[in-house]
Amino acid sequence: MGIAERLAGGRTSAPRQSQPAPPENNLDQVMAELHTQVVDQLDIVAVRQLDAGSLNARIGSIVDQLLAQRQLCLGERQRDRVVRSIIDEIVGLGPLEPLLADPTISDILVNTASTVYVERNGVLENTRARFRDNAHLLNIINRIVARVGRRIDESSPMVDARLPDGSRVNAIIPPLAIDGPLLSIRRFGTGPLRPEDLVRTGTMTEHMLQFLRCAVRAKCNILVSGGTGAGKTTLLNALSGFIPPGERIITIEDAAELHLQQTHTARLETRPPNIEGKGEVTIRDLVRNALRMRPDRIVVGEVRSAEVLDMLQAMNTGHEGSMTTVHANSAPDAITRVMGMLAMSGTNISEPMMRQTIARSLHLVVHVTRGSDGRRRVDTIAEIAGIQDERIGLNPVFSFARAGTEGEFRSSGNSRLLRRFQAAGVTLHPAVVGSAGVGRRGR
Fold this sequence. Notes:
This protein is of the alpha/beta class. It contains 16 helices and 15 strands.
């Protein structure tokens, strides 16, 4: 009789039975517990140097050992999910990793630990992604901002940063975020849309694209306006593809999103103040510096404040063909917004002089919209038509006319810029302006 049997009074104990796999709603708790145990057995610094295959094998081996110790039986799918989640926690961004790997997602919106929305094709949808709690979410936010040399805490509860892949990140935590940390990630495609893609997706017609191509080639100064997520940056990227390759372009942004295809491009990005509140570099600082860099054109990702004055002056003093964007609800609203920013620029400019500055600096306002169905369209292409009755006149060359759930692109049949195109040696057939290439757009 063995020792165990004698200690048990001659009776042998039955082997312990493996526990069945936990239901899906309890698997998150198992993953959290396993994650802690796996981390205790790992040299995190060394593990992060492994390639994907070696890392997966290493984590998988430890998970199998821990599951055996727990006598917990998981199906292959559940086991792979546990391994993947632990890898994401160790070297990635936890529950966000599957979303970041999905190329169809353009925005990730985390409304505290229990709610994560994404945007696909312009439409928001709820997801099953969850964080264990707000502390888990805060840890992921800290990991994100640490990667780009930033910090977030109660003394500095907001951060706006850019990930290495170009995605734009905004985070805000308590006490400013009442219910828990909030995280927004704006993602961008692997490559910029080509101009012809905008026609294929119904954003504009072929005639509208030809007109904008000529405007860029003829060095017209262009203001792209629209609401959040309407596609301003996407359109700006596409238009920049018409800039001749021999020109020097300076791009200026808060967070680098532009991906110009020209080889002679210099990219500048603002810098926030440091912990002591010093060292900030604004868009206005960069616009002023860009003027000393011998640019042919300046492309500003977005004007929000006093830098609009420097931008307009640059457009009017030898840097024609420059472009920028502004948040606005319509083409006329875009002009009103620019007027308002000029008023806040810190200089004593009268309203008549503001109007003159805008009228002499800008040639086109291109307004983009996003419908309730997520479809993005160029709503208006309007020329600046000088000062009319103490207002800046706009001549809509192309517009989108809505009719219920449908609509069509229309042309006004005239353009003041045709003579400028001709003088610049840019050919545009008159029929292009005479017809928008009208086509019905369902929904």
